[in-house]
Amino acid sequence: MDFEPWWLIFVPVVFAAGWIAARVDVRQMLSETRTLPNSYFKGLNFLLNEEPDRAIDAFVEVAKLDPETTELHFALGSLFRRRGEMERAIRVHQSLVSRADLPQADRESALHELAQDFLKAGMLDRAEQTFEQVLGTRFAIPAVRALIRIYESEHDWPRAIEAVNRLRSMVDEPVPQLAHYQCEQAEAALSANPPDLTAADQALDAADQAAVALRGQPEGQASEARIAILRANLARLSNNPEGERAHLASVLTIAPDYASLVVSDLLESFRSLGQEVEGLNVLRAHYARYPALDTFNVVFRELRAQQGLQQAWVFARESLRAHPTLLGLDRVLETELASRKNDEKTPVKASESQADGHYEAQPEALQGGQHPEGLHALVEGQTQALAILPPAELALGADLSLLRSLIHKHTQRLDRYACRVCGFEARHFYWQCPGCNSWETYEPRRLEEIK
């Protein structure tokens, strides 16, 4: 196509049109900028300079001058909540909810923000009521999750179960804590006076159904172990010792990592049936495959009681060489000192299980006051401080007591369970962390075993 000279007329026309449009846009922008109060720009400047306190004060002034700025109110409410100023956050979001001209979408957002304010402030009743108001909105899923946390904190397990079932109808994802909610109900029934065995059995059946999705997987070991332990308690209260033993023994197979929680009770169950020798063999075989401190402790004590001092020390020496642990050595020395004290008295049968999950066994008396040759080899290498005590001196009860005292001081901080999420440490095992309320985050091993 040929160029026509008269087309040049359009060049200045197009240039002029662009210049006019730009002037109009600039004037409009300047006009809108002039309508913004100075406090708005001050607030932005404070935010850029990382001065949130002064920024909040500046934005509050803007909100007072223009109450219709909903976005600014939302921003202020979030800032207040993050800074822990819950009263001011609640007041900001309540002012939004009370506005009659607020669009429905903004009203739902304000209610959800207000519910979060109440929850963080610990006002659980008001948080629950407000979250329930947004269950039919786009905030339904986070609202149900928040309600589950509220019911957990209140130990309202029936409502927590109902909320979990509602969540599962919204999202296709497993909720592993559901089995624990059922277990909590079973524990409550078993702890009642008198125990409600029927309710406990029904709750455990429901827990079994909830745990089906994770059965056979590593993630399902915790719930499987807890259900088996509770079924063992139910069998014991039902005067069914064989059933109790069967459920406790099942933990060794279905959840071997959690076997340390049941080994003491399992041995006592075998003992009640007159099968303590078989029980010891079962635990020794399990320890050979899954070495753990509590299993070691129970096996050592029972060996001391059944087969005598020499066999117990042989087992201890071999075990501690293969799996060095100061806690294990501390338990061995504790048992030896207790046994020596008992040797001075009339021998009695092994005592029943203690509150800490162990039992004191009455061993055979030391023959001729001789101590096993392996004791010095056992402690050698566990800590350099032990090398100063010669074998002959270790045979003396006073030196054993001193040795145990030194080791015990160093092992106290290691004799704890710890949460994988928040690091909360405790002397007792918990299915739910008391610190962060997470489920199944406690390893069934002491700190020394996992570090």
What would you note in describing this structure?
With 451 residues, the protein is mostly helical. The chain is built from 22 helices and two strands. Helix 4 (70-82) runs antiparallel to helix 5 (86-97), helix 9 packs antiparallel against helix 10 (177-191) and helix 13 (241-254) runs antiparallel to helix 14. Among the domains are: 7-36; 67-170, Tetratricopeptide repeat domain (Serine Threonine Protein Phosphatase 5, Tetratricopeptide repeat); 174-261, no CATH class; 416-451. A hairpin with a 6-residue loop joins strand 1 and strand 2. Strands 1-2 form a two-stranded antiparallel ribbon. Mean pLDDT is 78; it is low at 23-35 and 346-395. The chain has helices at residues 10-35, 38-48, 52-65, 70-82, 86-97, 104-120, 124-133, 140-153, 157-170, 177-191, 197-210, 221-237, 241-254, 263-272, 276-289, 293-306, 309-322, 326-343, 374-379, 391-394, 397-411, 447-450; strands at 417-418, 425-426.
